[in-house]
Structures are given as structure tokens and as C-alpha cells.
Design brief:
Blueprint lengths: L7 H10 L4 H24 L7 H18 L9 H16 L6
Helix pairs in contact: 1-4, 2-3, 2-4
Length: 101
Amino acid sequence: MSRTFASFAEFYPYYLEEHRNRACRRLHFVGTTLVLLTGLIALLTWTPWLFLLMPLFGYGFAWVGHFFFEHNRPATFTYPLYSLMGDFVMFRDILTGRIRF
């Protein structure tokens, strides 16, 4: 049974609990970095088909982290929007040192 969250602020601590494994967080970080770089390259080079790679990079790396290291079900399946937001907030938190890489 899924939990109900009234806001992203309420969801984010749950999201972090689902990403305790360092390898999983690192895979998320790599995937999010590739998503951002691919989007930037697609815009700068006017190559729209590159946008198709973005979900592959983002979800591919994250799901490998969940299935092989975290051993849990990705939050994307139950909370798609909050999970996407969580990826970017966790990315920022890793960059700023708030979360251990």
C-alpha cells in the first residue's frame, strides 16, 4: 500500500530513506548529470532526437541502483512527479555536500 504525501517537503525525507545505499545515490547522480548534459547538448546543437536519450539515462542508472544495490522498488512507479523532483533536489544536495556522495 502506498503512502500519501501532502507536499514535496513531506515526501523528500521518504525519498532519502529509499536512497540510503551510496552506490544507488551515485548512480542517480551519474544519471541526472547525463540527463542535464544531454539536454544541454541537444539544445546547443539543435539535435532534438537527443532528448529521447534523457529518460534512458535518468531511469536506467536510477533503476540499476534500486534493483541491484538498494533492493527496493523505485519511487517513480508510485510517485512519478515527486520522484523526479527528488532526483534533482538530491542531485543539488550531493553537489552542495549536504548528502554524502
